[in-house]
């Protein structure tokens, strides 16, 4: 993992087409702006984690239901 320190209005450049700019630092909150092509999906980490957990739960429930249905036949 690369760790960088940046100040407000400073930029981190990723490849040729992604720019991350520090917009504001207020207490323990940092606002950033990301400029990237629309073809690149950008999601918050906690959202990805939530989706992953929901998908895993759904898979478990489906397998339990499938097992119950198979026992009835």
Automatic annotation (TrEMBL):
It is found in: Cytoplasm. The keyword RNA-binding applies. Keywords: Bacterial flagellum biogenesis, Cytoplasm, Repressor, RNA-binding, Translation regulation. The keyword Nucleotide-binding does not apply. SUPFAM superfamilies: CsrA-like. Gene3D superfamilies: Translational regulator CsrA. NCBIfam families: csrA (TIGR00202), PRK01712.1 (NF002469). Belongs to the CsrA/RsmA family. A translational regulator that binds mRNA to regulate translation initiation and/or mRNA stability. Usually binds in the 5'-UTR at or near the Shine-Dalgarno sequence preventing ribosome-binding, thus repressing translation. Its main target seems to be the major flagellin gene, while its function is anatagonized by FliW. Homodimer; the beta-strands of each monomer intercalate to form a hydrophobic core, while the alpha-helices form wings that extend away from the core. This is Translational regulator CsrA.
């Amino acid at each position: 993992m690369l760790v960088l320190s940046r100040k407000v209005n400073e930029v981190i450049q990723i490849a040729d087409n992604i720019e991350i700019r520090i917009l504001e630092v207020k207490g323990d909150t940092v606002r950033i702006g990301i400029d990237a092509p629309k073809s690149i999906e950008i999601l918050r980490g906690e959202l990805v984690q939530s989706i992953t957990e929901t998908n895993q739960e759904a898979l478990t429930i489906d397998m339990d239901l499938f097992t119950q249905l198979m026992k009835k036949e």
